[in-house]
From TrEMBL:
It is a multi-pass membrane protein. It comes from the Eukaryota. One of its GO terms (biological process) is endoplasmic reticulum organization. Keywords: Endoplasmic reticulum, Membrane, Transmembrane, Transmembrane helix. It is found in: Endoplasmic reticulum membrane. This is Uncharacterized protein. The lineage of its organism: Eukaryota, Metazoa, Ecdysozoa, Arthropoda, Hexapoda. Belongs to the jagunal family. InterPro entries: Jagunal. GO terms for cellular component: endoplasmic reticulum membrane.
């Protein structure tokens, strides 16, 4: 490169100044996007370990390993898309390798693999839990599902949960009295021998109730964890938070990877011109 009024560098008369500046900008773009892609991959690892912690209970069950503290957490069973998404962690090695070697074809493969193993499972989870999110907005946002009790003196006092009438029927309960200023009903859940319940408050009724039983008999009732609810929030709503974070991480990863592909292609074209 030549300086104004100064000596010339052998092999150039300074006429390629703009070309050299363009090549320098390409290297700068490549360096910036490589750094940003590595940050995205780091957050991908954090998200993977969070998912692995959730799948830990199921993995230990499959290996016949019993740990009381983990079993007591009563983590819901996983769905197939959760395991498929975990495979997306393998794409990070492909992306880091492609970035290190400036390999266009490998970076393109990384983008495709991330879409298949990362984005598509999240889209499935988004659709799968959509009904839970809608139910939470349309029901729980109107009034909280708080404990309630019947006050009719002609009936024995029963404890239940305040639900919308339609939701109470769908859950298998019986609405006794109004609650939440008339927007809901005090939903009572009852079960008997061989029955199963997953409600916070549920009543056991012996055969022939209200008459007492005088004979001995074996009678069991199964109590399960309330499905779709974790720490007082709908299970699907918690997954929505995970999915939204996942979309952002994968979206930015694909964006930075595509910028690298374009920068490397421009650099290759510049070399051919030379």
């Amino acid at each position: 490169m030549a300086s104004r009024g100064g000596p010339m560098v052998t092999g150039t008369d300074g006429a390629d100044f703009q070309h050299r500046q363009r090549v320098s900008a390409i290297y700068q773009i490549s360096a910036i996007n490589k750094s940003r892609l590595k940050y995205c991959i780091f957050f991908h690892y954090l998200l993977f370990f969070a998912m692995l912690a959730k799948l830990c209970s199921d993995i230990l069950d499959r290996l016949d390993i019993f740990i009381l503290e983990i079993e007591e957490l009563q983590v819901p069973d996983p769905l197939w898309w959760e395991y498929i998404w975990c495979l997306s962690i393998l794409t990070t090695f492909m992306g880091l390798s492609a970035a290190k070697g400036n390999r266009i074809r490998d970076m393109q493969k990384y983008i495709i693999a991330l879409v298949v193993l990362g984005i598509l499972p999240l889209i499935y989870g988004l659709i799968y839990y959509m009904s839970d999110a809608i139910d939470y907005i349309t029901f729980d946002m109107r009034f909280p599902n708080e404990p309630c009790a019947t006050s009719n003196k002609s009936l024995r006092q029963l404890n239940g949960t305040c639900y919308h009438q339609l939701e109470c029927e769908q859950l298998g309960g019986v609405g006794i009295e109004n609650c939440a200023n008339g927007f809901g009903v005090c939903c009572i859940f009852q079960s008997g021998c061989g029955g199963k319940t997953n409600r916070e408050v549920s009543y056991f009724e012996n055969p022939g109730f209200p008459k007492p039983i005088t004979d001995r008999m074996a009678c069991t009732m199964t109590v399960d964890l309330l499905p779709g609810v974790q720490q007082g929030l709908p299970y699907g709503l918690l997954w929505y938070a995970f999915i939204m974070v996942g979309f952002q991480i994968h979206g930015f990863s694909i964006y930075f990877a595509w910028n690298l592909v374009k920068a490397w292609q421009s650099r290759s074209a510049a070399r051919k011109v030379q």
